[in-house]
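Continuing the series of single-chain predictions for the mutant panel. This is the parent chain; the variants come on the following pages.
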Amino acid sequence: MKNDVVPVQIRGILPANSGCALFVGNDEKVFVINVEPNMGLVIGMFMREAPKERPLTHDLMQSIFKGFSITVERVIITELKNSTYFARLILQQQNEVARKIVEIDARPSDCLALATAQKRPIYVTNSLFEQVEDMSEVLERINENGTEPE
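Parent structure:
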């Protein structure tokens, strides 16, 4: 797997016309995944470790995972088709008898929320990373103009 994927992080979150722009990448390249406004807020809350009045859906999922000894192993943003990103959520369940790994098709926004909440690694496939447009300069300009992303 190590040669097939590139490690990335969420580098910023900004409001956009139809939702939120998640700037995802590393020192080499940054690209944008557009998500629903609510998902941008949730991911931002997890990044800041902000307290919430009531558990959100991803908090519920984490509680269920904990109850069944499941952890997020990693997430992988895999491809872009017709302007839609795809991702895989890799879960691990371990108990006294066995260790089980399960790979689930999921929206990148959900994967990023869970990975951020559990401080787990985020990866992008090499083929996708080569395909996406580099938005590093855009993010740098935004940061320089004082509109600091989350």
